[in-house]
């Protein structure tokens, strides 16, 4: 990609001062100053960076945003004084020293994170210390409440408010596109805020975006949900639990997801929308976040405990995470698959079963079905076309085309069918291999990119039969995805030599 | 203090790109891009920040320094590609998960720190993880070697090269001003790099600066030391162990000083100057870094072990850290006190005894004195005037006035004598209280600011007799220091009511 260079003043926080002034003030790199603009009477604390080369003694470089906040222009004079660090620094240090934080201390840290009184470095220290020393259940509760308190909340007219969340790690997990319309069709309120893929091939927000806009404010989410009973939007446009974004930002380079912070992150988003009934989907498998049933049960207990402390009814669904849900991976492919089920298709089985199972639990919890009958009620809402009808209302209210059909959603024009190298049973679908290949093919940005699994685990295939198909929106990305596929073998047929697939055995088709 | 606002492009690393381009590239906040300028063929990895407001899609904001490095100007086009994170990220994660790092892994982390391949956030995670999970002796050795390898080294003509270091925490510890000239006068080579005060009232570099410039390059340090046998300079101007500055930068807000990192920091600086014989001064006391004799011995063992692995002979002097060394605290006051001892004064006892003890150990280790006779040899180098003569050579070669006398160094003109509120024995000199008052009075920036302890522990005083004197360079700072002194009671006389000292009992004198 080519980009035009443009030198601009950048946003951010902090300031540069000359080393001489720093010594006069007695401050060091990372210390805080309070900058006061006497003309406007406005002041703000800033973290200083010290330089000897960028400016002359007697001057201060302030970022644009700070200047705008204080009403400052070039050449204005400001008063600066040393400022004491916020008390949250002391509480972060306490967590570094393996102390237990009180609710008050956690709230102070989270508030200072959101108010930008803490630098990203300092937030990193907090997250690292929490990751290493752990957060106990009281601290997780405090963190959840603090995240809610420092962000926006939504109140809905319809009750009960129900919600679902999957902790992730399984490709093709498009069940939200089925669960939300089923639940809303049952007359319940389900304001689903969802995420975009970070390391996956398509988050729920990426999928829904194929059908309708997903960027809405909290107020818009409230209005739309109250109108039709449900929405599927991107959580990032609301200001719900903004501290969570900061935590994710500093965890990101290290690919960590501290258990307590993860629970707080999920539960804060549910609590902020007033959810009363919640199901958490915990996929278990070697490539998901939770590797054993035992770990899943322990995690489920914590979710349920935090829910009960916050007055939410929480149940957890421990699900199979070894291979993709359904056959499609990547935005358009997944949306077409979900829509086809809403339209009445009876496959793929794994998608339908998981969707009605999760929806069924919610229906039972909300009293819309007897114990043990939730799944049947969900299935009939699907079969009757009520869920499809509701999904069209949701698409319409979010500004999409309600009359869209699954056959309208077409995958990328460049595709390659991967043949079975030997005859035998499919014994393994490697989640991370499939996601890597789908991402290299362009997903989630290229909505048409992805993978369709022609065979799933246990399928008997003959040599030369297609086991999966890669889709892309350009020949170049398709070629790159193919190279990676040859290296990763994301689908394994029993007895197949784990050797290079000969290049001439792969057919490259151009669809149109 | 008033400063002129000036909006400037700032230095640093990283780049801003628009969210749309970030999604197209598949990168998130904190991910890395490689930016290539085809015209010059130069490229560099950068960490991206994502924005929706600062620029339009298709553009990239690069910091000045990056532009200069690549030869870029406004309006030039660059190629950007996603870049994989450096492998040091993985090793930092390993330390977060309480793994033991190999020498190779530690070197990779330290090299990436110095090369700016790691962001300050990522360095914070490493330092926090090392602080919490600790570094074992092998890791400390690796860290020491890595710090040396990634910085400048100095080789001296004269041998053996000897060095001393105090791990700090005791006010008034000006012994380096005596030890260096004594050792150099004995014909040994002692290239002393020292620090400025961070939380103290005067680091050795702040003191020496009263007499001569202290900012020199490594090459200048080498030349000056080879000429006169010793120097006392600020370590920050050399590029010895630059990784240490980064570690200190991120530790600073939390006032932590991880034991392994502290040992590596000290030993790397000694190893980089080729020190063969080293004494480490470990002050023990309630307000120093080491609180018990047992902790001091354990720390000493680690210093000795790392020294032996690096081929350095190390001994440790565990010293009394409960109250100040000598009577003076603050640059001018301390320098005058040290100079007066070199000129032949026989007090203060604690300063002379500690200086000849440390110098004596070095003389014995270097074979300049028999075991048990080092202190005597040190004392005679002091008494003969040889140390004073050598100190004058050092001052001269660093560009100061060699004929300076202790009486030339005068304290701040604004001073207040604090009277004993009752008659009795002085029972406590509170280190941190004394330092706080000295700093509020202006030390170490205002060279004349500080405290002179007229009475020390065990001194019998009568009510109204001066127990200590505060010096400042302005009435305002003197007043502020007095207020703090009334609150902190840094000197306690037995039987004294820990109540406010009545304001009219304090005499405010203007000296000139």
UniProtKB/TrEMBL annotation, chains A, B:
InterPro entries, sorted: AMP_phosphorylase (IPR017713), Glycosyl_Trfase_fam3 (IPR000312), Glycosyl_Trfase_fam3_N_dom (IPR017459), Glycosyl_Trfase_fam3_N_dom_sf (IPR036320), Nuc_phospho_transferase (IPR035902), PYNP-like_C_sf (IPR036566), PYNP_C (IPR013102), Pyrmidine_PPase_CS (IPR017872)
Positions bound to AMP: 169, 195-200, 204, 265, 289
Active-site residues, record numbering mapped to chain: 257
Pfam families: Glycos_trans_3N, Glycos_transf_3, PYNP_C
GO molecular function, one term: 1,4-alpha-oligoglucan phosphorylase activity
Keywords of the record: Glycosyltransferase, Transferase
Domain Pyrimidine nucleoside phosphorylase C-terminal: 425-492
UniProt-listed GO biological process terms: AMP catabolic process; pyrimidine deoxyribonucleoside metabolic process; pyrimidine nucleobase metabolic process
EC code: 2.4.2.57
GO cellular component entries: cytosol
Gene3D superfamilies according to UniProt: 1.20.970.50, 2.40.40.20, Nucleoside phosphorylase/phosphoribosyltransferase catalytic domain, Pyrimidine nucleoside phosphorylase-like, C-terminal domain
PROSITE patterns assigned: THYMID_PHOSPHORYLASE (PS00647)
Catalytic activity: UMP + phosphate = alpha-D-ribose 1,5-bisphosphate + uracil; CMP + phosphate = cytosine + alpha-D-ribose 1,5-bisphosphate; AMP + phosphate = alpha-D-ribose 1,5-bisphosphate + adenine
SMART domains: PYNP_C
Function: Catalyzes the conversion of AMP and phosphate to adenine and ribose 1,5-bisphosphate (R15P). Exhibits phosphorylase activity toward CMP and UMP in addition to AMP. Functions in an archaeal AMP degradation pathway, together with R15P isomerase and RubisCO.
Entry's family note: Belongs to the thymidine/pyrimidine-nucleoside phosphorylase family. Type 2 subfamily.
Name of the protein in its database record: AMP phosphorylase
Organism (species): Methanogenium organophilum
């Amino acid at each position: 990609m080519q980009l035009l260079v443009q030198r601009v003043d950048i946003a951010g926080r902090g300031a540069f001062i000359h080393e001489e002034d720093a010594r006069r003030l007695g401050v060091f790199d990372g210390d805080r100053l309070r900058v006061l603009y006497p003309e406007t009477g406005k002041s703000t604390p800033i973290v200083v960076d010290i330089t000897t080369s960028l400016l002359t003694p007697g001057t201060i470089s302030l970022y644009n945003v700070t200047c705008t906040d204080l009403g400052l222009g070039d050449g204005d004079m400001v008063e600066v004084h040393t400022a004491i660090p916020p008390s949250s620094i002391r509480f972060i240090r306490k967590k570094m020293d393996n102390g237990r934080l009180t609710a008050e201390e956690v709230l102070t840290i989270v508030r200072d994170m959101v108010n930008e009184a803490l630098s990203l470095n300092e937030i990193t220290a907090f997250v690292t210390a929490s990751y290493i020393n752990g957060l106990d259940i009281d601290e997780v509760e405090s963190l959840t409440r603090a995240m809610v308190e420092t962000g926006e909340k939504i109140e809905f007219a319809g009750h009960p408010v129900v919600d679902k969340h999957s902790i992730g790690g399984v490709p093709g997990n498009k069940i939200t596109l089925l669960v939300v319309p089923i639940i809303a069709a049952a007359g319940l309120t389900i304001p689903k805020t969802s995420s975009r893929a970070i390391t996956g091939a398509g988050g729920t927000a990426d999928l829904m975006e194929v059908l309708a806009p997903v960027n809405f404010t909290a107020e818009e989410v409230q209005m739309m949900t109250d109108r039709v009973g449900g929405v599927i939007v991107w959580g990032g446009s609301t200001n719900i639990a903004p501290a969570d974004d900061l935590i994710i930002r500093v965890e990101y380079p290290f690919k960590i997801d501290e258990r307590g912070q993860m629970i707080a992150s999920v539960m804060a988003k549910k609590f902020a929308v007033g959810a009363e009934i919640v199901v958490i989907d915990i996929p278990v498998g070697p490539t998901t976040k939770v590797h054993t049933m035992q770990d899943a049960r322990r995690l489920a207990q914590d979710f349920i405990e935090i829910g009960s402390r916050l007055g939410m009814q929480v149940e957890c669904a421990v699900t199979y995470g070894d291979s993709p849900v359904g056959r499609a991976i990547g935005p358009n492919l997944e949306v077409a698959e979900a829509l086809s089920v809403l339209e009445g298709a009876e496959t793929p089985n794994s998608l339908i079963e998981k969707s009605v199972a999760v929806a069924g639990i919610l229906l039972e919890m909300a009293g819309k079905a007897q114990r043990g009958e939730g799944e049947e009620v969900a299935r009939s809402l699907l079969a009757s076309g009520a869920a499809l009808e509701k999904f069209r209302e949701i698409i319409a209210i979010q500004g999409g085309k309600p009359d869209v059909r699954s056959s309208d959603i077409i995958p990328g024009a460049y595709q390659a069918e991967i043949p079975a190298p030997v005859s035998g049973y499919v014994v393994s679908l490697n989640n991370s291999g499939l996601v890597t290949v789908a991402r290299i093919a362009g997903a989630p940005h290229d909505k048409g990119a992805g993978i369709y699994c022609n065979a799933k685990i246990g399928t008997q295939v003959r040599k030369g039969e297609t086991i999966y198909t890669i889709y892309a929106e350009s020949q170049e990305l398709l070629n790159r995805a193919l190279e990676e596929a040859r290296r990763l073998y994301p689908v394994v047929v029993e007895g197949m030599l784990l050797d290079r697939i000969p290049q001439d055995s792969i057919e490259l088709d151009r669809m149109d």
